[in-house]
Every structure is written in C-alpha cells, then in structure tokens.
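Need tokens for this chain, all 200 residues.
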Amino acid sequence: MSINPGDYVACRECDGLHSKAELSVGAEARCQRCGALLYRHPRMKAEHLLAISIAALITLAIAHSCPIVALQVNGIPNSATLIGCIASLWREGSLFTALLVFATALLFPLLELSSVMLLVLVGWKAPASPLRAMLSRFVMALRPWGMTEVFVLGVLVSLIKLSHLARVVPGIALWAFAATAVMVAVIAAFDLRQLWEEGT
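Here are the structure tokens for all 200 residues:
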C-alpha cells in the first residue's frame, strides 16, 4: 500500500503528523496536540492575490510620487514626498534613519509585492519550476520585515504632534500608503501553501 505524502501535513510547532481533510471556504485545521494552525482554506484564490499585488504596487508608486503632507507655517506653504524626506535625512547626516525609512517604506514592500506577483505568474506558466520554492521562501523571509502599517502609524503620530505648530494637510501619498498597508496585510494573511494545493 503506497502512501501519498500530500495526504498528510506536519505541525510546524510540535511536528505532529495529521491526515489532511477537505475544508470549507474560510475554515481552518488546527493541530490536535498543540492547537497550532496547520492550514486553512482561504477565501482568496491565486487570481485575487495577483490583483491585490498589482493594486498595491500602484498605490505604492502613488505614495512615493505625490506629496505625503502639506504644511503651512506663518502663511508659508511647504510640501514633501517620501523620497524627498529620505533624501533630506541623508543630507542631514541621519544615515541610519534614512536607510530605515527607505527599507520599511519602499524596499521591503516593493520586494514582497513583486515576489508575490512573480510567484503567482510562475505558478501559472511553470508549476514545476524550482523558482516557485525559492520565491516562496523569499516572501516568507521578507514578511517579518514588512512594517508598512507601523510606518503609517508613525506618520500619523508625527502629524498630530505637528498640528500644534503648523497647519497640516495630509497629502494623497498618505492615503495611498495607508491603502498599500491594508493590501499588504491582506496578502500577508494568505497562506502561500494554498498556491501549491491549487496547482497554480
């Protein structure tokens, strides 16, 4: 009697082995030993993941090309973009802060969204490609570093504090970045193993 490894799933917390069962949409299976999540049947499919990734890349581009905030101090207006803020930090000698903002606001979100998009496309074109496994591992390694929501909260706190000193008007980029953070969170909630099970 042959055993199909695809019929079983191991718990990532306690290594308990469980037989896989069909789940309804939105349901999840948990380890009987430790209660950890084994797998779930997500409501999203590969095409939804691709659409959200593309939309998030568009809003990320908007967030970096439009003013994030407009200030008016003593009747003198001023505005700044995220790229402009990073460049200003660099020129003022705050190299670590500039690199941190660049990484959390642009580099890591861009890498994660691009990798997820490529992962779906590669799955459609070449399901057996070893590139799929490499991209999956890369996305999982990036996820702990994707802190777009923390960056948005930090900007909001800064704007509240600045409102006592100047007239502050949130720019298009702030709303675009907030939308990006929401979509990145939705993508992060997707279990990439589902792509393999769907055969994409």
